[in-house]
Amino acid sequence: MLSLLSAFALPPRVTDLNGSSLQALLIPISRPTYKIANAIRGRFETRPVDDTRDTSAIERENQALKQQIQAMRAEIDHLQQRAGERASLGGFEEFCDRFEVTAADTGVHDGITITGSGISALHVDEPVLSSGSVIALIGRISRAGAMAAQVRLITDPGFTVTGHFVSYSAASGATENKDLTAIVTGLGKTQMVIDNLSLQDVQHAGLQPGDWIVLNDDTWPRDLQGVRIGRIASIEALSRQTLFADIRLAPEQNLMHLSDVWVMTHQR
């Protein structure tokens, strides 16, 4: 009976348990869990296993890790980071507001949950950029609530955006190639692909792993045109149509492990 009422009688806003309002209730749990997981990942993911260490060395590392987790709670670190990011945002700072990432969607979709001062003023479809030394387009606001908002990442399956390529060399610097219009499609699990270009055109353009793809899409704000989307990770022939290229892209950062993001809340 409940299923029947949910499917045909009650409005979706009542039955949708995946909305930002419900996720907002979980922020006191998701925020510390997300940050502790990121701290542990950052501490150990690049460290090789070393079984020869003695107990005292392991205890010292554990104590240092505890201190790092406690230090993450200090807002002064965030304020210092914000000051540095403002200087590197490349002209977007006057259009953006910063928000904290409190959770990452590990289900069938690539998404994150954000919160912070001014979250209630966000609107669906507002562009979202990564923070840090390299600013890149990472998605759009998909749900907005009074206490939290959800971001659909560009790596989410079916997410599409168009762009063009930029190559870089130490001798000539950055060189734009606007002759090839690439359609970037999310594959899920932090992956993206371009499969609308012929392999011959890609080879003729001299595209190589490491080249950038930047935004060139009229459906996005004018001030965002030219912002990075990702880098070419590999170029191969498409298995189902060998005359076309299978270009796999990698985001500038792991989008599921971000600590904060910029949301473009107003435009020129």
Layout of helices and strands:
Layout: H1 2-8, H2 12-15, H3 20-25, H4 27-44, H5 55-71, H6 75-88, E1 96-105, E2 111-115, E3 127-130, E4 137-144, E5 149-153, E6 160-169, E7 173-188, E8 191-194, H7 199-205, E9 212-215, E10 228-237, E11 245-250, E12 260-264
Antiparallel strand pairs: 1-2, 1-12, 2-5, 3-4, 3-12, 4-5, 6-7, 6-9, 7-8, 8-11, 9-10, 10-11
Describe the structure.
The protein is globular. 27% of the residues lie in helices and 32% in strands. The protein folds into 2 domains: 1-154, no CATH class; 160-250, Beta Barrel (Thrombin, subunit H). The chain has 268 residues and is an alpha+beta fold. The protein has helices at 2-8, 12-15, 20-25, 27-44, 55-71, 75-88, 199-205, and strands at 96-105, 111-115, 127-130, 137-144, 149-153, 160-169, 173-188, 191-194, 212-215, 228-237, 245-250, 260-264. The protein contains 7 helices and 12 strands. The strands form 2 sheets. Strands 1-2-5-4-3-12 form a 6-stranded antiparallel beta barrel. A 6-stranded antiparallel beta barrel has the order 6-7-8-11-10-9.
